[in-house]
Amino acid sequence: SFTFPNLGLVYEDTQLNGQGSTYLGQFFVQTEQKIQSFTFRYGLHAQYFFLNDHSRLDPRFQVSYQSTPRSQWFLGLGQHSRLDPISVYLYKNTVLLNGKEVDNQRLSPPRARHVVVGFQRTVPQGIDVKTEVYYQNLDQVAIQDTTILSTQGSIVSLLNEINSINLYPLVNAGEGRNYGWEISIEKKLRDGFYGLFTSSLFRSEFRNSRNSNFLPTRFDNRFILNGLIGKELVIGKQLIDVNIRGTWTGGIRRMPSSIINGQVSFTENLGYAEKLANYFRVDAKVNYVLFVTGK
């Protein structure tokens, strides 16, 4: 059994149980229109969730401008909906709360609205450069339903979940936002050399309906850098590929905590404000291929 004194709950034996199946129907249509140096793309995505008869239409739009034969500007607007892990909808909590068994089958998929502005250019020596800034607003995010289980200060939100196991009744009342800048530089294979560099600086934040301020999510790493450089050598019927790749990213976050009277107490009003150590990794790889032809 598990006891949560601050929630007034005691879980005995099986905590979660559920089984079942469902279907998701999707349809997408897109058309393209070219006017001189401009290209317009219009799209519409439709989906129907058979479990709770929820349907939604997501419009999308993109325009690109070919300023030179090697340069292009682009703007993208769109709405995207996706299901949370199916276990979130199908499980049943065996604990009775206010005389009812908890399930989340009524939840609708969260919705994200995107704005992206970018520029890409191909330079000599086979190098492609692409950069963009973006803003993403999320709503109808699943958070704890305090009308069924009231816990002051709770910041349960599926935007912070690492796995799909959730002990709480949920409702579509949360929000989130992501915004940042990205750049990628790719050197295509030429004279045996190739390489790729990507960089992302961003913020990831959330808030529940009772919170007035956005708080950092668990995944608000702030930056991600990736690099790859390689060399291919062809010797007769042999190919040797040597490459090195590296990753440097900000650490995942956790909620600030302290120990009071032998119990762990979390400072929920700060969100996931405490950042763990940055992550760094380098890998080297050698591939050997021998080409054999039949007689």
SSE layout and pairings?
Layout: E1 2-4, E2 9-11, E3 16-17, E4 24-35, E5 38-49, E6 54-68, E7 71-81, H1 86-90, E8 92-97, E9 100-103, E10 111-123, E11 127-144, E12 170-190, E13 193-207, E14 215-216, E15 223-235, E16 238-249, E17 253-254, E18 257-260, E19 263-266, E20 274-275, E21 279-290
Antiparallel strand pairs: 1-2, 3-8, 4-5, 5-6, 6-7, 7-10, 8-9, 10-11, 11-12, 12-13, 13-14, 13-15, 15-16, 16-21, 17-20, 18-19
Structure commentary:
The protein is mostly beta strands and 295 residues long. The protein contains one helix and 21 strands. The strands form five sheets. Strands 4, 5, 6, 7, 10, 11, 12, 13, 14, 15, 16 and 21 form a twelve-stranded antiparallel β-sheet that branches. The longest helix is centred in the N-terminal third of the chain and has 5 residues, at 86-90.
